[in-house]
# Entry
Amino acid sequence: MKKGLIIKSTGSWYQVQEIATNTIYEARIRGKFKLQKTRLTNPLAVGDFVEFELESSDVAWITKIEPRKNYLIRKSVNLSKEAHIIASNIDTACFIFTLKFPETSLGFLDRFLVCCEAYN
# Structure
């Protein structure tokens, strides 16, 4: 079993960077994770630590998701009762926005700061 970090999420495919060698693999998640009863639209997010096994030289199956130390979340756009994890295991959060054009709402900045505080 290899350990890795999710560095990209595209639909049902993920890019996993192996911790030991920094090799990047294309990976998919097993169906059992999708069937778990959660209020999340995505079982994995960028920043998640996982265990995986290789199917071929460059394709892998994710077999285990390590617990998250924190995450950044938002309500799902189409599914109001579900949430979408934007990123997990975040060390530093940085908010960059324009002052003039396009105008950035200070309410948006407030929501970002509250979310960062609420989820560590």
